[in-house]
Amino acid sequence: MGKNMIKTDICVIGGGSAGLSIAAGAVQMGADTVLVEAGKMGGDCLNYGCIPSKALLTAGKVVRTWKKSPEFGVNYGAPEVDFQKVHDHVKDVIADIEPHDSVERFEALGVKVIQASGQFVDSKTLKAGDVTIRARRFVIATGSRAMVPPIEGIESVSFLTNESVFDLTDLPKKIIIVGGGPIGCELGQAFRNLGSEVSIVEMASIMPKDDPDLVSVIRDRLENDGISLLEQTKVLSAEKSSEGVILRVETNGEERDISGTHLLLAAGRIPNLEKLNLEAAGVKVERQGIAVDKGLRTSNRKIYAAGDVTGGYQFTHMAAYDAGIIIRSALFRLPAKVSYNAVPWVTYTDPELAHVGLSETDAKKQGVQHKVLNWSFADNDRARAERRTEGKVKVITSQKGKILGASIVGLQAGELILPWGLALSKGMKIGDMANVIAPYPTLSEVSKRVAGSYYTESLFSDRVKKIVRFLAKFG
Ligand SMILES: Cc1cc2nc3c(=O)[nH]c(=O)nc-3n(C[C@H](O)[C@H](O)[C@H](O)COP(=O)(O)OP(=O)(O)OC[C@H]3O[C@@H](n4cnc5c(N)ncnc54)[C@H](O)[C@@H]3O)c2cc1C
Ligand SMILES: NC(=O)c1ccc[n+]([C@@H]2O[C@H](COP(=O)([O-])OP(=O)(O)OC[C@H]3O[C@@H](n4cnc5c(N)ncnc54)[C@H](O)[C@@H]3O)[C@@H](O)[C@H]2O)c1
Fold first, then answer.
1. Which CATH class is domain 154-269?
2. Which of 161, 315, 417 best tests ligand 2's pocket when mutated (most atoms within 8 Å of CB)?
3. 344-459 adopts what CATH topology?
4. Which residues have CB under 8 Å from 474's CB, separation 6+?
5. What number is the ipTM of this complex?
6. Which of 15, 151, 265, 290 is deepest in the core (most CB within 10 A)?
7. Taking the complete model, does pTM exceed 0.95, yes or no?
8. Domain Pyridine nucleotide-disulphide oxidoreductase dimerisation: where (predicted)?
9. What is the gyration radius of the CA atoms in the chain, in angstroms?
C-alpha cells in the first residue's frame, strides 16, 4: 500500500452536521473512520447557518425587549446598536461552540481527518488532496449552498448569501432579501430589530411550508415591525445603483423598482455535488439532490448520503437523524429505515413557529379523515403576564383522537413542540395530552387545553347535563 493510500471501514465526505455525527458515532463504536472536509469543520450550521442566525436574532430581540420595557413600567433610553460588536458577539458564539466540531477533537476521538476536497475515482475509491482512500462504505454529506435564482443582471450586482452575511461589520441601511422562507424571515426580522430598513420579496407566500393560519401571525408581526413584505412578487431584474442595488419587481402584473444598500439571497438551496465526480462512483442524482432509498443508500449500495445533499428535510436535527440510520445500517447491518411521521421544525422568528407531523393541508391533500383542534395563547394566563398573547396552537387528530400533527405559533413555540413529537412517535391519543397535569401558570398549558378541547362538545353536552342531574337525585 502506497504512503498516501488509506484503507478504512468508513469514509465520510463533509464535516457538517451529518458528517460529524456519523464520524463521531462510527469511531466511538470501533470503526476505522476517515473524515474528508474541504472547508470549515462544523459546516453550514456552525459557521454560516443555525448558530450565527440565532445569535444575530438574539441581539435583535434584546433591542426589541428594551424598546418594549415601558409596557412593564420600566424606562430606559433609546437603545444604541454597535454593529461591529454585534458581529463580534456572533463570531464569539461560533468560537465558543467550535472546539466541539474541531479537527483536534475528532482526531482525539480517533478519526483520521483530511482537510481537502473529496472526489471519487471509481466506485470504491476517493481522492482528497494527495491522499487516496479505499473504504468499505462511503457517506456523502457535502451539504448545500444558497441557490442564486435566475434573475436578469444578478451576476453584475454584489449580493450576500448565508456564507457572507455574518461577516458584515456595518449594519446594512436598507437590505432587500429575496426569499421569504425561514432564512429570509429570521434574518429579515433580526436586521429590522437592529435598525435596518428591510424588504422581503417572496414569489409565493412567506413560509410556504407552514400552516397559513399560523403564518398569518408571523406576517402581522413582521409588518408591524416595519418590514416591507412583498409577497406574490417576482423579481424581474437586478442592477447596480449608486446606493447599492435596484431590483425591478412585479406584483399582480404591476412593475416597480425597489432599491437597497444590500441584497441578500435566501431563495432556497442547491446540493453540493459538482466536485464529487459522482458518475465515476455510480451515484445517481435527481433534481433535488442525491437519490437515496429509505435506508439512505444511493444507487451504489456501498455509498450512503445524508443531510442537505439529499434535498430532503434540510435541518440539522434531520442530518443527525440520518446519521443514526446510517450507523445502524453500515456498522451493524441492521435494516434501518427513515420514518418521517414525526419530523419537527421551528422557525425562530419572534414569535416562533413550530411544527411536527401531519399538517391540516397535508391531511386534506392525502384525504386523511381528521379533526382540527385550535387554542389561543390569549386564553393562557402566563402569556398574559408576559404580555405575549399573540399565538395559537393547532392540532390534527384522527377521528378517534390519535395525534397526527401539531403546529404552534407563539412565545417559546420551539420549546413547546417537543411533547407533541413524543406523543406522535409513541402513537399517543389526545386523551394522553389532555390528562397530563400541567404546572400553572406555564405556556405548556396551551397543549393541555387544546387537547382538552377535543372533549368539550361531548363533555358539556345536554346528555352529560342530564346524567349529572339524574345522579344528583340520589343524594
Ligand atoms: C442561515 C441558515 C440558518 C439555519 N438555521 C437552522 C436552524 O435553526 N435549525 C436547523 O435545524 N437547521 C438550520 N439550518 C439548516 C442546517 O444548517 C442544515 O440543514 C445543516 O447544516 C445540514 O448539514 P449537512 O451536514 O448536510 O451539511 P453542511 O453543514 O453544509 O456540511 C457539509 C460540509 O461538507 C463540506 N464539503 C462540501 N463538498 C465537499 C467535498 N467535495 N469534499 C469535502 N468536503 C466537502 C462543506 O465544506 C461542509 O462543511 C440553517 C441553514 C442556514 C443556511
Ligand atoms: N429555523 C430553521 O430550522 C431554519 C432556518 C433557516 C434555514 N433552514 C433550512 O434551510 C433551508 C433553506 O432556507 P431558505 O429560506 O433559503 O429556503 P426555502 O426553500 O425554505 O425558502 C425559499 C423561499 O424563497 C422563495 N423564492 C425562491 N425563488 C425566489 C425568487 N426568485 N424570488 C422570490 N422568492 C423566491 C420560495 O418561494 C421560498 O418561499 C430551509 O428550507 C430549512 O430547511 C432552517
1. alpha beta
2. 315
3. Enolase-like; domain 1 (3.30.390)
4. none
5. 0.98
6. 15
7. yes
8. 343-448
9. 25
